[in-house]
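BUG-185 | component: ligand-complex export | severity: low

The export step for flavin mononucleotide jobs runs without errors, but we want the raw record kept on the ticket for reference. Input record follows.
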Amino acid sequence: MNETLEVIKRRRSIRNYRPDQITDSELEAILEAAISAPSAMNQQKWHFTVIQNQDVLKRITDLAKEVMKSGPEPMAKRAAEPDFSPFFHAPTVIIVTGDSAGRFVQIDCSLAAQNIVLAAESLDIGSCIMTSPEIIFKSQEGRELMKELGVPEGYAHVCTVALGYKDGDSPPAKPRRKDVIDYIR
Ligand SMILES: Cc1cc2nc3c(=O)[nH]c(=O)nc-3n(C[C@H](O)[C@H](O)[C@H](O)COP(=O)(O)O)c2cc1C
């Protein structure tokens, strides 16, 4: 198997991170991979907000606790845990937003997110794509925070990617369905 296929097969969603930060050159390589993704009609109507500032991450965590406490029972329970972090304490968090008016923007952003996680894995950096932070960024305070962080007007949260060195081994791969492919030959 070549290296690309090995990285694709090896990548797992990581939910345990070491606190030490990834290097700037690793981050730049990952972001270069993000913007190298294809996009419909090459519109590139995506935006990547890279957060490594602990105060901002804490503000988002506090906001998450606030909005999640009135959510469904399992969500409220998770947010009430003393060590709760919406991003599993990852030292780098990338909020991926896309132009709400653009067509196929969700696909474009998802492809960029996939490039992020594959580039990360190729550097032995753990990652997790998450849509659950949507509840944070859809709230009034979340929208204000996104504005403050420089997310362009009219752009909405598509997903958030947690990044950091893995604390321990990657979990084993979850079984993949094999009955989803038809060959018409
Ligand atoms: C669109 C999307 C949304 C996801 N949202 C979350 C999330 O909110 N929280 C989380 O812990 N994992 C999230 N995941 C990760 C999935 O749970 C994970 O990809 C799946 O269980 C397969 O495991 P693997 O990534 O280790 O192969 C998301 C993945 C995708 C593709």
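Assignee comment: Attached the raw record above. The pocket of flavin mononucleotide is lined by residues 12-13, 128-132, 174 (CB under 6 Å).
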